[in-house]
Amino acid sequence: MKVFIVYCHPSEDSFTRNIRDAFIKGITDGGNEYVMSDLYAMDFKSDITEDQYLRDANYKNTPFAEEDVLAEHEKINSADAIAFIYPVFWTEAPAKLVGWFDRVWSYGFAYGDKKMKMMDKAMILCSAGNPIEKLEQFGLLAGMKKVMFGDRLFNRAKQMEFVVFDGTSREKETRENNWDSNLEKAYEKGKNFFADGEDVFSVDDRFFTAVENSGSGEVSEQTVFCYHQKGNVIWAEYSGGSIVKGFLIGTMDEKHNLHFNYQHINKDGELRTGSCDSEPQIGNGKIRFNEKWKWTTGEDGTSVIEEI
To answer: Which of 83, 208, 246, 262 could disulfide-link to 123, CB 3.0 to 4.6 Å?
Structure first.
């Protein structure tokens, strides 16, 4: 099996470079192959040209002529999985990697009449100066994951994983204190990249929409739910259709059933609240929840939401 590694860091004197090397050693020790694009070493051009912009903006399937982008397309389609390794700059990837997506995720390859293969797995390995607790508390980690998973990798990989190596600023003691353990983690992620471990059921960073609903319900196929999970705690934001904005929060039990309260504002300006119990089903690698809900005002009903 082969992993395409997209590596982006301006300096070889960095902790991120050590993550890269440990991850690669794990890949090869696990009996797998890799191909890598080191964007700074390649001097990859990150600015999109006017010609490419007009091609993509007008959804033209004209032959793509930029050789450096075609080379990236070939690396992607020659691999079974993809991994991105980079430092977090202001809650984002470095500009060169953002530009890589701008150019490589071109029309006719990554969207439209796609020629890009479906990756078996996509993994993000990023180093962050802030501790993970701060990234979570201020919603920064959720923002990073939504951009990478909800947009750039959405429906382009069967499995996705976001790995953060936090507290890595040179000014922080945690950089040195956790140096060996972090590199061991990077090595293990590489070595077990394709391992068939026990599947962990999670709704974290998964998107759902309603496919069935009782007449007194307000969500529809235009409503999109973005779920999150930490331990047995689950929460979600939802909007679309007749829902202006909604939130839910609750728990997942040992059978993966969800139990939560919800509230939303509809387009009539009404605040609606209620409770719901959801039972999961798995089919074709996607999650479906069969829901039984009840408004605080007393009406009840059933619905089905399915992973997008």
So the answer is: 83
User: 3 near 25, Cβ under 8 Å?
Assistant: no
Q: How many domains does the chain have?
A: 2
Same domain, 123 and 96: yes
**What pLDDT, on the 0 to 100 scale, is given for residue 172?**
79
Q: What percent of the chain has pLDDT over 70?
A: 99
Closest CA to 117 of 161, 65, 76, 64: 76
* Cβ neighbour number for residue 145 with a 10 Å cutoff: 18
> What is the extent of the structural domain holding 99?
2-191
Q: Please, which residues bridge with residue 238 across strands?
A: 225, 246
Residue 236 near residue 248, CB atoms below 8 Å:
yes
The answer to whether residues 213 and 157 belong to one domain is: no
Q: Are 176 and 263 within 8 A, CB to CB?
A: no
* CATH number where 103 lies: 3.40.50.360
pTM: 0.83
**How many Å apart are CA 247 and CA 52, to the nearest integer?**
39
